[in-house]
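User: Can you predict the 3D structure for this chain?
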Amino acid sequence: MVAFDEAFRRQLHELFVWRRDVRRFRTDPLPPGTIEQLIEIACLSPSVGLSQPWRFVIVEDAVRRRAVIDDFKSCNADALRSYSGERAAKYATLKLSGLAEAPGHVAVFADASGAIGSGLGRATMPETVDYSVVAAICSMWLAARAEGIGLGWVSILNPARIHDILDVSQSWKFIGYLCIGYPEAECDRPELEQAKWESRRGSGDFTIRR
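Assistant: Here is the predicted structure, written as structure tokens:
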């Protein structure tokens, strides 16, 4: 077994602390092959039955990107209407995506129809296919941060429209749309906490014993 020393563990903890959901990007291009390298690391993640159900779509076409941005604006307007009063006013001030600025766009899907893994481990919990893809995204997120690259997960999108925009199999389940690029600034606190939308709780608030 590979041994990791205390210095490494401290640095790993710092990586967790400084990993952020980035919404404010510089427009500087990423070095060639950067996104592909991050995807390779994501594919080292565990998956139920070793099914490797992740499907990554690197979105480079300007027309498709614009369509995604338009869909975000539509969904974000709907979301704003779901709030009222002071909460609505606060929501309207939030920057919730870096779609327009980020040089890299990657859509991530889960493919539960693949034969890889032969269905092992998911008969009683088929949703573990989706969880496996989320784990891959988290690995990608940390790897990006270690390279000084920001990643933002955009969830305010209509999955059906994203399928149509990207022309992918309808059997794939849309998991998330990732913006990737160099952040304008780095911070160890979530942007939503800085904006006073919500505050981070400690682990004790979410842990029980039986």
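The chain has a mean pLDDT of 95. The radius of gyration is 18 Å.
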